[in-house]
Amino acid sequence: MKDNYGREISYLRLSVTEKCNLRCRYCMPEEGVCQKRHEDMLREEEMIQAVEAAASLGIRKIRITGGEPLVKKNIVSICEKVSQIEGIMETCLTTNGTLLPKLAKPLWDAGVSRLNISLDTLDKNKYKYITRRDELDKVFEGIETALKVGYKRIKINTVLIGGFNDDEIADLANLTRRYPVDVRFIELMPMWDNVEFGPQAYVPCSRVLEVLPELTSIEKGDGVAQLYKLPNAMGNIGLISPISSHFCESCNRIRLTADGKLKPCLHSSQEYSIKGMNYEGMVKTMQETILAKPSCHVPLSAEEHSEAGRSMNQIGG
Ligand code: SAM
Ligand code: SF4
After folding, report:
1. In order of start, what are the domains of the chain with their CATH numbers?
2. 196 vs 186, which has greater pLDDT?
3. Residue 86: left if φ>0, alpha if ψ -120 to 50, beta else—which one?
4. Nearest CA to ligand 2 atom 8
5. Its pTM surpasses 0.90
6. Where does the pLDDT of residue 196 fall: very low under 50, low under 70, confident under 90, or very high at 90 and above?
7. Is the CB of residue 146 below 6 angstroms from any atom belonging to ligand 2?
């Protein structure tokens, strides 16, 4: 279905939980999330019905996210059901990777076709600092297991953080020579609650091009990243610049949170609840959500914060 600005909306980001086994400083408070009542969260059947409703309106790609989707007990069953819904061409999942050693194979068998794995540093101590957990080895074990079970072109997502990992750009990019993976650098978004990451933490993606002049530009795919490649690399380098050059004009997505709120725009507090609705209600509310998509989000910069009104772990990125 098209929105009011002629954009074809074909992509739903489905957050299945707000919980996570890490505590990334820019995403989640140390004490974790404030527990919502179980009955206020979407049940598995409601999530599946919501995806069916979305598919009836032309959604073709689902990205399962969270919180950390792999801490959800019934995640394999959710993925299996989503990937079998008529009209859904791609079921993708974004994870911190720590539980992939155990779950990569079941997810592959359940029909999850693409994996994005978040990784901000290659240094054990820095990983421990930024995530407040000591799990870096598990992430690498997870990447290797996922490659072994058949995943192709895994994307490693790295949020660029000034004074934290801007000295590791070359090492992180080198992962595309070590493994057949793409590495994507993403500008840190100023969410309303990550104010401890002030202007000094914002690093534009153009820094990657300064550090790696040997990168050659390659044709842009259908995603939001500008694509480049290192000589002799197996995978690509992607630059995702939500701050320095937003991609609202080609935005093709809506979001559904784990507590059943449809979001027309990541950076707006506008939400439409589908909790407790039947299929017809969900279709109608999804149409309203698509038609409520703004032409562009609020201005974002090191000083101007998102108006999402939720933490990233409660939205799903
Ligand atoms: N737990 C999973 C993970 O970490 O991949 C999925 C959910 S997480 C919220 C999705 C993505 O959002 C991660 O790649 C994370 O690094 C990114 N993210 C979180 N807060 C962000 C921010 N303020 N700016 C840019 N990316 C952010
Ligand atoms: Fe968890 Fe992902 Fe947020 Fe890190 S970025 S705290 S792994 S939800």
Report:
1. 11-154+247-315 (3.20.20.70)
2. 186
3. beta
4. 67
5. yes
6. confident
7. no
